[in-house]
């Protein structure tokens, strides 16, 4: 995924041993006098070169000079790629700061509950990394530290921080809550539009489309163009289609609502307004629902059973012209068994308002090492240091890194990812503190009932809105 680690086997082994030492078990070496010593950290001259880029700013703009020696911070992360991404950067922070970073890995299914428990009572974690909607819940509960005073303090913040370099939508939606800067963006995520580039560029296909529809075949930008193109590529509606289905996605329970939400903002709706009132039981919500039903006519018959793996693997068979999915689909379509390898293009979802996911990094309000915790957050999200996480599926959150040719050209979907992140307006998880998961379930039941023909769009929208008002009404929330 990147052009990193040009050093030899000995260096790689040393770094692996070093990172393992940061896994949270706090093991220490013992010298020949029986005294415990911290394991040696890598020197900055040993830095890897992600994407072939020599990292220049790995000491916090000169603000990290070993002054935190003897101090420790604890970071709570989800197991797997998040854990690995943090461990890829932590050794360098330890060396320049003098501090110890303890990484506590938590299975993803337990992350939110365990973090909430700690914020309520245990107070072990200094830093947490969670999905955005849950982060906002912690902020509503006044459990996160406002980072703005640290950003504004020239005696603490790195001169190279450049907070305006974060993609604006990420900083505003991920980071800000009720006038406070409660987090920094960490892992961006957004629904992308994947399309069969080979079909869209085929002269015979283009001629057939123009003859049938009277206009040029192009990557659809509006819902109307989306429906028209999907129908052209569906054999049941157009026997001359070069593929069986015009469109596919995930639509099993827990995932179906995004097929609707990807158009909701285009028509002028959203999940909840600034006062936490449902904002979809209107013409915008209805138009998005009707578009969803039109698109369903162009999908596989098993669509409502498609989960993540099912949908991705089906698209890789080459039977589908277009798909909306999270960026993780890329690794599937580029796999050795994929029949569409190097045949797929990438764009913003039709309607130009894709569903936004993502994770943020924040400081617990009860941290006893506030300044050190801030410096770590600043460090791992800095322009240079964030490149070390990209190898672990954590795409960049900064505009300047997408501007680096080495980074931009490393993944063919990166230009579309950047544009999609800029255009996104609605979060994948309904952004209401404390009950986000419950509201997601409400939307899923209603959306699924429309897709399987049990209820009309009008009935589903009213049911959703009524349930939203009931559940949100139990809380005491205000913007």
TrEMBL record:
InterPro entries: Bact_solute-bd_prot1, SBP. It comes from the Bacteria. Residues 1-28 form the signal peptide. Keywords: Signal, Transport. PANTHER family: ABC TRANSPORTER PERIPLASMIC-BINDING PROTEIN YCJN-RELATED, ARABINOSE-BINDING PROTEIN-RELATED. Belongs to the bacterial solute-binding protein 1 family. This is Uncharacterized protein.
